[in-house]
Amino acid sequence: MIIKHVGAGVLLMLLIAGCTVKSEYRLLQTKNDIAAEELLLDPIFEYRILPQDRLKVSLYKNPEQASVGTFNELGQHMNNEGILVNAQGYITLPLVNKIKVSGLTQTQAADRITQHYKKYLKNPSVYLEVINKRVYVLGEVKKPGAVAVDKEKMTLLEAIAFAEDMTDSAMRSNVVVISHTDQNQMVMRQVDLTNFDTLHAANLIVKPNDIIYVQPNNWKQFKVVATDTTSIFETVSRIASPFVTIKYLTD
């Protein structure tokens, strides 16, 4: 009788475990369907400087002459770390002191700095670059983590390639991309990399600070459920074993 009850209990747990979706393995879930039109972003994009960005700034006396030097060499003493944009969006430079650059594109920030230096130098020219631009690739890729962006933007496939491609357990039909708008609102896109007809250019573009999450496929979830179920079965077997032994002895 005990064996029958134990067997029934194990069967019930197997059914429950088999029907349960391992939701903790699927990040960024939503109960709302998102229309395809809402997922498209404008492919025309210029990165705008944010607080905590680090900038490489080089000053030239005029466009035809050698550089006066990067501001790292002109008293900043930051090695190759760049000049930090503070929480208020300002950077501090020799002679001109504080200049607000947050919210500007790299070109606009360079032009603003150039205007400040015209008070002190003849025909100055400034080169500016954000040196800590990153996208973040998580989930079922072979090398998850931060990917450096050395241009205004990159494609989703490029970012995945830098993460050394997807694993065999990746759900390629539903890759999630999280972006921030200029109003600091989060926008989620879901991209089906298996369907060429749905791969619009805007869907494939990722920007600095985007988060890419490659979800596990159903087979990965099944393996996790199976592992958990096996553990449950082993636990129940250990608990039931003494009772089974006693039953045999009493017989």
Question: What's this model, at a glance?
Answer:
The protein is an alpha+beta fold.
Share of β-strand residues: 25-35%
- Count of spatially separate domains: 2
Q: Any idea of the CATH topology of the largest domain?
A: Outer membrane lipoprotein wza fold like
**Dominant shape:** elongated
N-to-C span: 13 Å
User: What low-confidence regions span 5 or more consecutive residues with pLDDT below 50?
Assistant: 73-79
Label the structural class: alpha+beta
Radius of gyration over alpha carbons? 28 Å
Annotated CATH homologous superfamily of the largest domain? Outer membrane lipoprotein wza domain like
Please report the number of helical segments.
7
Helix-strand layout with pairing:
Layout lengths: L1 H18 L16 H4 L14 E7 L6 E4 L1 H5 L6 E2 L5 E4 L3 E4 L5 H12 L7 E6 L3 E6 L5 E4 L5 E2 H7 L7 E11 L5 E6 L9 H4 E2 L4 E6 L1 H33 L1
Parallel strand pairs: 7-13
Antiparallel strand pairs: 1-2, 1-3, 1-6, 4-5, 7-8, 9-12, 10-11, 10-13
